[in-house]
Design goal:
The protein has a domain of 69 residues: Cytochrome Bc1 Complex, Chain D, domain 2 (Orthogonal Bundle), CATH 1.10.760. The chain is 52% helix and 0% strand. It is built from 5 helices and no strands.
């Protein structure tokens, strides 16, 4: 029981590739997710103050990568803050990829 609750408090890990190393962009995305996103969307995207992002719905809402990049950069409504002035374009791309490839 303790292991289960501890596991749910950290962001999902990046799988190791065939070369024995993790993808650096996905690792950056995980770090950005942990620092800037998990407090609202949950450590594994399960939702909280922010929308649930680990159920595949993100692909329906934002079928194109640019849509998700835009929301992260400029925000949306009163709930999703803009991160364009806090994160680099590379960090925004990395966290978007992490959401789409690891959380879903």
């Amino acid at each position: 029981m303790i292991l289960s609750s501890c596991g749910s408090s950290s962001a999902p890990q990046i799988p190791v590739g065939p070369n024995g190393e993790s993808d650096t962009e996905l690792s950056t995305g995980r770090a950005v997710w942990t620092k800037h996103c998990a407090s609202c969307h949950g450590s594994s995207g399960q939702g909280g103050r922010g929308h649930k992002l680990n159920d595949g719905e993100i692909f329906r809402i934002y079928p194109e990568v640019d849509g998700l990049l835009n929301v992260i950069s400029v925000g949306k409504g009163q709930g999703m803050p803009a991160f364009g002035s806090k994160l680099s374009d590379e960090e925004i791309a990395a966290v978007s990829r992490y959401i789409r490839e690891i959380l879903n």
